[in-house]
Specification:
The protein has five helices and two strands. The chain is mainly α and 167 residues long.
């Protein structure tokens, strides 16, 4: 691992931790935490699948025990998703789709830069920046749909006639 790549991963880790604490200051924190955890779970499963199928590899890692990109899957991508959901919270359907591009296009470009100029990520078997763009766009929209469904669920969980509701 050369010094640039090692420092890049360290910078991204520190940047991600600072961003995480910053984004959790804006209400409703429960929604943002739910999105963060959902996106981390979803992206880690999908990344694990893509790595196992041989489409992507991560030759340089900060945490060697993971074959996926730990910093991206569990920190940076979920943070970007929370920011995306904050920006689209009051948007109509068209605005949601347009704002998705403002997140997925730059992320795909950065990933392309890392793939072509560093050893942080390698695309294989036909995977490319466009595939990353499409997959990020779809998962951003999935997370937005997930939180929209959660927000529509009723808050009341204990029926009025339940003798165990507490007095």
């Amino acid at each position: 691992m050369n010094k640039f790549e090692k420092n890049t991963l360290r910078f991204l880790l520190v940047f991600g931790l600072i961003s995480f604490f910053n984004l959790m200051r804006k209400p409703p924190v429960k929604d943002w935490m739910l999105i963060f955890l959902f996106k981390g779970y979803l992206s880690s499963i999908l990344d694990k699948l893509v790595v196992r199928k041989g489409y992507i590899s991560y030759p340089v890692k900060l945490f060697k025990s993971f074959d996926i990109s730990f910093i991206f899957d569990y920190l940076l991508y979920p943070i970007a998703c929370v920011y995306y959901n904050q920006v689209t919270k009051s948007s109509n359907l068209f605005g949601i789709f347009i704002k998705t591009l403002f997140f997925s296009v730059p992320m795909a470009l950065v990933e392309h830069f890392f793939e072509t100029r560093t050893s942080l990520i390698n695309f294989k078997k036909g995977w490319n920046a466009f595939t990353s763009f499409y997959s990020m766009t779809i998962t951003f929209l999935m997370s937005r749909s997930f939180i929209a469904i959660i927000r529509k669920l009723p808050n009341k969980q204990i029926p009025e006639n339940n003798p165990y509701k507490g007095e």
